Amino acid sequence: MARELRLNAFAMNCVGHQSQGLWRHPRDQSPNYKHTSHWVELAKLLERGRFDALFLADVVGVYDVYGGSPDAALREAVQVPTNDPLLIIPSMADVTNHLAFAATVNLSHEPPLPFARRMSSLDHMTDGRIGWNIVTGYLDSGAKGAGAAKQVTHDIRYDIAEEFMAIQYGFWEGSWQDDALRCDRDAGVFTDPAKVHRVVHDGEYFHVNGVHLCEPSPQRTPVLYQAGSSSKGTAFAARHAECVFVGGNSQSKMASDVAKLRALALEAGRDRSEILVFALVTVITAATDAEAEAKFEDYKQYASTTGALTLMGGWTGIDFSKPELVAATAATSNAIEGAAAAFTSGGPGAHRDVESIGRAVALGGGGPVLVGGPQRIADQLEAWAETADLDGFNLAYAVMPETFVDVVDHLVPELQRRGLLKTDYAPGTYREKLFGRGPRLGDNHPAAASRQMWARQPD
Ligand SMILES: Cc1cc2nc3c(=O)[nH]c(=O)nc-3n(C[C@H](O)[C@H](O)[C@H](O)COP(=O)(O)O)c2cc1C
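Above: query sequence and flavin mononucleotide SMILES. Below: predicted holo structure tokens.
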């Protein structure tokens, strides 16, 4: 039986997200990213199309690997300028009832308690429709901007993330008991201090001693996303993530990565239904195959190879303006492990010339670009989902918001006709809609251990 698919829109609070150069297309409206109305209209459209969530990418740093400077990124709007992803969420939540918001925040630059508070605030303000894409960063420029001498090494970033998560779970799940809030006017007690607990963490990377500042929000912990594909990253996802975002062009490679992730999750005591996997894909669709193909040809004229190489430079740590050094730099990369490994001397991208790499990435960010009318695209999405054991897709745009308008007008009705996409939303928080269980994380998730604080003496 065909499985139900979930759709997220993949965007970023910036101009050029995945498809570099497309901001020059006459119908592209992404330079309006700085206006609230831009996001409000997008949110309404996505809810009309029964998207589960708007997934917001983010980087705190500029892509300055290409040519050793930020010039190309600035000139071509390669994920810069970029505004804060969290700040646009309340306005979008205001005009929707069901659409969720999964926002990327790089924990490497976040102090634990202020971050816990921002996410709890958003969970309150969206009535439990918030998710967090846990990332650890890949840009040296981001680390330097945040005050470090340089980015810490790849695997250590995940060790830091483990500690950071333990602290967040303390704040979100443990610090306040469910019945801590009394709001008793007669007794003059708003919160029962005996039911609020201190999070004390003395670890290798953090020393924290504090009480959460927010009362329990509908989901407490936001729905947890993760997108790391290295062995450290996959192990981290298997322990913590409820949704995993995967990228790649090969169905068989993706199938083996997803199988690995699911096996590790099982080992961690989490069953198949507790982890949903979403794949990156760009869909160019229209009423017919021919119209979609014509649209694709039109879009391609605007795709920027230099913009794509600038983006890839940040992802891989490789300066593609120096083709002769690609393999050597890939071998010592401290950025996204899988992205860099493709260009080491034995990697699948090693033999390709830089120009062709740029062309392949310029539209769709190197993920699959599916072009066709609704039937063809629905067939292809079904095939990807079936082969790679996917639960849904994060759909990137080529032209904003045209790509999403086309998906909603053409593809969504076809997916619904096939029983692959819901025609209405389930009630409840984001977590309830995704998993059909309660609003909170289950007892077998590592976060649940923090609830044991409730059994301790009050602080
Ligand atoms: C499809 C996909 C989307 C990602 N989006 C972001 C993002 O928006 N911001 C970010 O800082 N990292 C992003 N990442 C990077 C990862 O979350 C992770 O930090 C990075 O892949 C390094 O980990 P790894 O070597 O385990 O893959 C993304 C990765 C993938 C595969």
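Residues 304-362 form one domain.
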